[in-house]
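Notes from the pairing session

We agreed to fold both candidates in a single pass and log them together. This is the raw record for the first candidate, unedited. Please don't reformat it; downstream parsing expects exactly this layout.

Candidate A
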Amino acid sequence: MRINNTEVTSLVSVIVPIYNQERYLEQCVKSLLHQTYPYLEIILVNNGSKDRSGAICKKFARQDRRVRVLEIKENLSAGNGRNTGLDAAAGEYISFVDGDDWVRPEFIEKLLRALLENDVPIAQCCYERAYWNNTFSDTLPYHEFRIFSGREMCKIMNEFIGMCGPMTMMWNKLYRAELFKDFRFYEDVAYEDMYSVYKLLYPLERVAFIPDRLAYWRQHGSSGTSRYSYKDFCIHEMYAYEERVRFFGMHNDRELYRLALKRMYYIATQHLYLQKRYVKDSRNVQDWLLDKIADIYRELMAMDCWSARTRSRMRFIRRFPEQFGYWSLHHKVDFRI
């Protein structure tokens, strides 16, 4: 790859946390080995897998010297695997790919080109959701190349259903390694991306967004790839949103505080619907969510920035939280408040 008549040979470290992903791991690693940008170290972090994932990792390490295998005895979370990879990474640039996902051959090259040509610390692409029946769904919030500030990206991830996904994920981006000098992921939590990405983005003046769909996020129900139940995921996601709200409050950013609180309001109704519809013996979690919805409602209504129409919408959600959760999930209803 050449930029301004100069051959680019900078090392990119790709960190892959792995837990019980023998079914999908070969496709993931092969997609990295076949990258059009060849200057890679592929760090496979076997996070205490109980299946053949470790053996598959070692096979690839024997076949290609760019592959390194790190072993962790006990699975804590993808965050633990990522931190282990960061501690070992030697690259000038960092990317993350989960062990059950895969990327297009030009994934690294296009992101690195966007990062270098625009002199930004992060470049981001779009992705597609890949389902068990070989169908795909798009996640394309913008159809052209854009330069955002980090704050603008934080606003988008809090404001719009359907557009927040590409902004929120860690694994559809390429980062300058110095961003991780004093940053590590939470361990022993689910939704580590939601605890993390906005903290990296918020202080940045410029982030490159390319509309290319370069990554595939596999959608499957394999409980073997996670140590958490849906009840756990629900609680962890709510805690992640609480921390996001606190973060913007600590930075005295009233607009993003309000938007993050609104997003948390919506997410709580979605989880309430899902808990009632699909989870047995979840009465305690449902009561906890109802309390959260009531608390958020009171805080939102205490703000003096709302129109009468917006207040009416918030009252509707408060009165029918489960129904709104259904509409929000299945019909992408998003009352702009």
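Candidate B (folded immediately after A)
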Amino acid sequence: MRDDFKLWRKAVANTSLYQYKVFGTFNDIPARSFYKVQMDTEYRKRWDKLVIKLDIIEREPFVTDRDQLNSEDSGNEVLHWIMKYPYPMNTRDYVYLRRSRIDMKENLM
């Protein structure tokens, strides 16, 4: 068990789908740099050789609350991601909702 990485999986009622939540810590890269790489889908297509297709198919920008000037929110993004996995695994086709938040006051991403 790794103390710097946590993954939760929860079944969605009455479906064969799951919700995932991930928390992790990296000590060899600044948090802001890691965040930018994860959010930049065009850059990911260039460096990740497993990506077959990666597109943001819908974007719903977050309207910032003026009382919360110490935070940034990406808004909701729906991504379509096709990944090529090595044998014996098959290609995977994902559609998922992505949202991130940066809280400068609490020093959290």
